[in-house]
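Structure in, sequence out. Go:
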């Protein structure tokens, strides 16, 4: 007995120490500027780290101070109250955290990043800890379900009230301050009520109804974040009707046997065919499309003509991705039409993968079809233009993590081919590391989370599970490093030069810590609701993995949560509303995966019906709001061509396959260069970026100096150095085509004017042709006086731009 008392005393002292240290760290972080610790008013990363460490120390104190009390509630009651309480805590703390950050620290990009890490590193462990403490103390059952209902109802109601009040973003009583004070007051009131009310106060309340209402409350909490355009009476009415119909159908027919296996296969095949018909995009390119495609076709064209990635050509969007595109264009002709077809094909594959993941994880045809319908409606039709216009926000950027989730699910479904699919996960992680920096992080993070889940739910001791997770994560890290090393060595052997990874990292820094393209999150942005969704999902996953590992073997929920949270960083830095569309597929899939988990876990048909109705309501809101976009974009689909509502499919495919010129200025440049006759030697074109890339693609060559997409070089601090080195490597005999007249592809970028100055310093340029409107062609006849090293003489190098240059899209 004395030993137990001593152990409790030691835990108490440790808990107090952690509380004090954590509180002091939080106070110091918040008061750092006032105390003169930092001169800058911005909340720097050191103070952010201190704040997070302080909060986590408080969480650790809560864990240490927990005491064990034998539970009295039933296991099912424990699970229901455990999950509902964690969800309520997570939503309430997310709202408090977001409001507190704005009130205390202002609304700037570093604060938004701080909120992201607070959600992951503080809100998730704190919510799990509170739920775990309630379980250890025996505070479960109907009482906790009602408290969870009260907390969630208060949070949802106050958020809706704040939205209706339309308070200003700043001022004496702004929106954030109102939300913070109101929700804190509600939290205190609920806690006091729970303590002061008599022990039997819950007997008169239907606790099961409170639990069933939680999905509805989550829907209510999202209403203030729904874009006003989707809150039309018609859209809400359609969504409400769909939700009510789903509720009635599930309540009436839930649990009954579905179609036979043969019919299921027929329906699956029909869904896959529908994916091809609806998702695949047809249409000849337009000028707006070319501005975004050039960032990919320019580097790929360079690779095709002997300029290796990270040696003599670079891209801000990736490395191995450009080599993969070049490999494709070894087989098919390179151009905007064929690239559009490739993007369409890859997006169709993504839709099929989403459907397969939903089918395997939910075990329901209807849930999978509903999830796919919502995902396609949002991702394919909600885009401001056609989704193929933006390769930087599509499958090329976000596609590989889906394969990690798919291989992981396949591995869990079959014992015979487990090693094969585990190997495919490692291979995908290795490829993604070279594909692009973002894809490498997404895939490694997703695979690492799945490895931790497998270890957490394994039937083994704590030490064995820890070793299992460490071993698998080490394999994944080794796969990433192997991919990088293999690419570096192959580049060295093939080109004789080492890959310049530093130049690629410069691009990454420019778009992250450099702040290029950064946009603040707008008040009541739907992105905040999306972030809360990932936070709540992570809370439930961690909680179940810790307390009920036998119930948490669903890999899709974990993979989609981590992948979605990582992809969310794209929106976090560039918080334009349209960017939410680009990262929407994992969120939509996760929503329906959780619906599938509810269907497979809950015995109450009413609970399943309410969850189904709430989910379908949200999905129907999205689909209903896309009516106009679907109608406008339908004529460009394969389905329209098949049904005769658009030109024949064959004629459209042939037109796109032949990559016709669509920019008259580029057509004029192609004709001008072709009229020069023999173009032996190198060709350097200095034209408007969009015109330059298309002209080079049509001429079947690449730029001898710099990239075939000068916008890339303009963003790089190392661009001028690479241009100077390229000019030094040229020999007499090449041709330079240049224009400074706007009507003849003029308006050169600073990096292009710098290139021309270096060429004039190094070579004697003899004019061989001109069109009389500003377009000129020169032959580099000889080295200028001063010899081969003259290009290194002082020429004012341009500064790297901190915004997208004019004409670059």
């Amino acid at each position: 007995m004395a030993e137990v008392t001593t152990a409790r005393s030691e835990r108490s002292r440790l808990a107090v120490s952690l509380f004090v240290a954590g509180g002091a760290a939080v106070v110091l972080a918040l008061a750092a500027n006032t105390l003169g610790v930092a001169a800058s008013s911005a909340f720097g990363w050191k103070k952010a780290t201190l704040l997070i460490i302080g909060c986590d120390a408080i969480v650790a104190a809560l864990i240490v101070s927990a005491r064990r009390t034998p539970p009295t509630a039933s296991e099912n009651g424990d699970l229901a109250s455990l999950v509902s309480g964690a969800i309520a805590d997570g939503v309430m703390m997310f709202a408090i955290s977001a409001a507190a950050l704005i009130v205390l620290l202002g609304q700037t990009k570093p604060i938004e990043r701080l909120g992201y890490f607070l959600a992951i590193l503080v809100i998730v462990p704190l919510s799990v800890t509170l739920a775990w403490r309630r379980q250890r103390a025996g505070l479960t059952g109907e009482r906790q379900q009602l408290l969870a209902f009260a907390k969630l109802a208060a949070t949802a109601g106050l958020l809706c009230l704040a939205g209706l009040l339309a308070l200003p973003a700043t001022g004496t009583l702004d929106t954030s301050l109102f939300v913070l004070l109101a929700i804190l007051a509600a939290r205190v009131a609920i806690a006091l009520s729970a303590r002061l009310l008599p022990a039997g106060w819950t007997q008169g309340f239907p606790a099961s109804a409170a639990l069933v209402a939680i999905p509805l409350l989550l829907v209510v909490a999202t209403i203030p974040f729904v874009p006003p355009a989707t809150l039309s009476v018609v859209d809400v009415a359609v969504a409400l009707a769909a939700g009510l119909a789903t509720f009635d159908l599930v309540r009436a027919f839930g649990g009954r046997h579905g179609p036979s296996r043969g019919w299921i296969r027929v329906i699956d095949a029909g869904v896959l065919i529908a994916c091809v018909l609806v998702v695949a995009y047809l249409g000849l390119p337009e000028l707006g499309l070319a501005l975004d495609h050039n960032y990919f076709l320019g580097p790929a064209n360079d690779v095709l003509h002997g300029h290796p990635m990270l040696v003599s050509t670079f891209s801000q969007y990736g490395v191995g991705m450009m080599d993969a595109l070049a490999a494709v264009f070894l087989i098919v002709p390179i151009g905007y039409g064929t690239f559009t077809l490739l993007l369409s094909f890859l997006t169709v594959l993504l839709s099929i993968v989403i459907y397969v993941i939903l089918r395997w994880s939910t075990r329901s045809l209807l849930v999978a079809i509903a999830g796919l319908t919502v995902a396609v409606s949002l991702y394919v039709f909600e885009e401001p233009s056609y989704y193929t216009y933006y390769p930087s926000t599509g499958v090329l950027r976000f596609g590989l993590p889906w394969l990690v989730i798919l291989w992981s699910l396949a591995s869990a479904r079959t014992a015979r081919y487990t090693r094969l699919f585990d190997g495919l996960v490692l291979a995908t992680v290795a490829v993604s590391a070279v594909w692009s920096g973002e894809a490498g992080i997404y895939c490694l993070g997703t695979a690492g989370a799945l490895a931790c889940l497998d270890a957490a739910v394994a039937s083994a001791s704590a030490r064995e599970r820890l070793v299992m997770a460490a071993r698998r994560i080490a394999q994944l890290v080794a796969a990433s490093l192997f991919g990088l090393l293999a690419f570096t060595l192959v580049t060295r052997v093939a080109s004789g030069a080492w890959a310049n990874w530093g130049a690629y990292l410069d691009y990454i820094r420019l778009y992250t810590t450099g702040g290029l393209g950064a946009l603040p999150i707008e008040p009541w942005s739907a992105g905040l609701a999306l972030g809360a969704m990932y936070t709540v999902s992570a809370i439930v996953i961690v909680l179940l993995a810790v307390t009920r590992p036998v119930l948490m073997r669903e890999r899709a929920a974990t993979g989609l949560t981590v992948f979605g949270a990582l992809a969310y960083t794209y929106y976090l830095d560039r918080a334009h509303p349209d960017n939410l569309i680009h990262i929407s597929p994992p969120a939509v899939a996760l929503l329906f995966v959780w619906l599938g988990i509810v269907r497979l876990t809950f015995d109450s048909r009413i609970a399943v019906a309410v969850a189904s109705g709430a989910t379908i309501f949200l999905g129907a809101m999205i689909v209903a709001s896309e009516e106009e976009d679907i109608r406008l974009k339908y004529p460009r689909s394969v389905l329209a061509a098949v049904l005769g509502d658009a030109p024949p499919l064959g004629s459209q495919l042939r037109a796109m396959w032949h990559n016709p010129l669509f920019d008259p200025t580029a057509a004029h440049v192609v004709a001008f260069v072709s009229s020069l006759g023999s173009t032996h030697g190198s060709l350097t074109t200095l034209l408007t970026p969009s015109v330059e890339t298309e002209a080079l693609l049509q001429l079947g060559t690449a730029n001898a100096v710099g990239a075939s997409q000068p916008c890339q070089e303009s963003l790089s601090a190392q661009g001028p150095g690479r241009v100077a080195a390229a000019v030094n490597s040229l020999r007499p005999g090449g041709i330079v085509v240049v224009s400074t007249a706007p009507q003849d592809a003029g308006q050169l970028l600073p990096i292009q004017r710098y290139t021309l100055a270096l060429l004039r310093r190094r070579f004697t340029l003899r004019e061989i042709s001109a069109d009389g409107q500003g377009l000129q062609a020169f032959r580099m006849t000889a080295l200028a006086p001063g010899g081969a090293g003259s290009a290194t003489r002082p020429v004012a190098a341009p500064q790297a731009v901190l915004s997208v240059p004019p004409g670059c899209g």
